Amino acid sequence: MNKNYYAHETAVVDEGAKIGSGTKIWHFSHVMGGAEIGANCVLGQNVFVGNKVKLGNNVKVQNNVSVYEGVFCEDDVFLGPSMVFTNVINPRSVIERKNEFKKTLVKCGATIGANATIICGVTLGEYCMIGAGAVVTKDVRAFALMTGVPARQTAWVSRAGMVLGEDLICSETGEKYKLVNDQLKLVENE
Hints:
The protein is mostly beta strands.
């Protein structure tokens, strides 16, 4: 079989999994047969990707992350080491709730820090940044920096991940942003 991705010899990729070219799957990872992974992704050591999970292109999944059924990550998402997704609101070991999985959407360019927890059923907006150890219980706006337990917005960040000052100009790229109806927007050619 000719494959256009790399899987370490200890990785398990079940038959039927769709994996894009240039993707790398490292030690002791497991990709279920119903998963779809885009091009140029990296799955670190000990990563699990469940059935019906979709990862876009250029998604980085760091060590010890489980991406459970119901999670969809768009392009350019970063999932930090040991961060956690859930897919059931009220799990019990003796009650099967597989028909109650809640969807979680992580939009383009979002970053989730190490050891953060994302409670199922939320949407994380484009280029948002979830701080290490934060617990996200509700939807997150695009470009929002969320920290704490439960997570609260503490700042705005640019596409480059830099905290924005009052001028809403990225210190790294010079990109300009503006607030429109309490949502941060990138200023295009103004």
